[in-house]
Design goal:
Elements: E1 6-16, E2 28-38, H1 51-71, E3 79-86, H2 92-96, H3 99-110, E4 119-123, E5 129-136, E6 147-152, E7 161-169
Parallel strand pairs: 3-4
Antiparallel strand pairs: 1-2, 2-7, 3-5, 3-7, 5-6
InterPro entries: AA_synth_put, BB2672
Pfam families: AA_synth
Organism: Ruegeria marina
Length: 193
């Protein structure tokens, strides 16, 4: 398979103290890491693309570690998500190659993470942004952690690129009060509840 050729990495950290209500004692922290790589399949249809997932695994681990470093380590993480923007010469299926390398990397480094990692992907032009979905790391039905983080940059993805993204958060939405399953009610049996 082709090498993973990185053009650049973009990271962001948000600290959210309030959404118009009272100021939180501890802000919600959301972080993203996006790596822009050359799409080895751009401009042509390739049947067997699955082996490239193996090549992306070290990148996934590196990006997940960057997020943990930004947010103070695995004990601080409560939410996560992943996404991919594929340049115009690629296809949506190329973004699907990020599911396993991105998701399993975060789950591996977190140790205890039972919930499936939510994801979004699209084929897009230069300067596009993606709302990366976020859910609780151990129970996808924890409503307080349903969130998203907008990720992108002004010069990606170019037509022959992929912009691969990982996001982690330190808690629920800062003013969560919509009910449903609460984090303290998680049973941890199936990744859902």
């Amino acid at each position: 398979m082709p090498d993973v050729i990185v053009r650049k990495t973009v990271s962001a950290l948000e600290e959210i103290y309030h959404e118009g209500g009272p100021v939180a004692e501890t802000p919600l922290r959301r972080a993203s890491v996006m790596t822009i790589i050359k799409n080895p399949f751009a401009g042509r249809y390739v049947v067997d693309i699955q082996p490239f997932m193996e090549d992306l695994k070290p990148l996934g681990l590196s990006m997940a570690q960057q997020l943990l470093d930004m947010l103070g380590g695995p004990d601080n993480i409560q939410g996560y998500g992943k996404g991919a923007l594929i340049g115009e010469a690629g296809e949506l299926e190329h973004g699907a190659l990020w599911h396993a390398p991105g998701g399993y990397a975060m789950r591996q480094l977190l140790g205890k993470a039972n919930a499936i990692v939510p994801s979004a992907k699209k084929v897009s032009g230069l300067g596009s942004r993606l709302d990366v979905p976020i859910t609780h790391i151990n129970a996808a039905y924890v409503r307080s952690h349903f969130d998203s983080m907008e990720v992108g940059c002004n010069d990606a993805p170019r037509a022959d690129e992929m912009a691969l993204m990982l996001v982690m958060t330190t808690g629920p939405r800062v003013h969560s009060r919509s009910g449903g399953l609460e984090a303290w009610q998680i049973k941890g049996e199936d990744g859902l509840r």
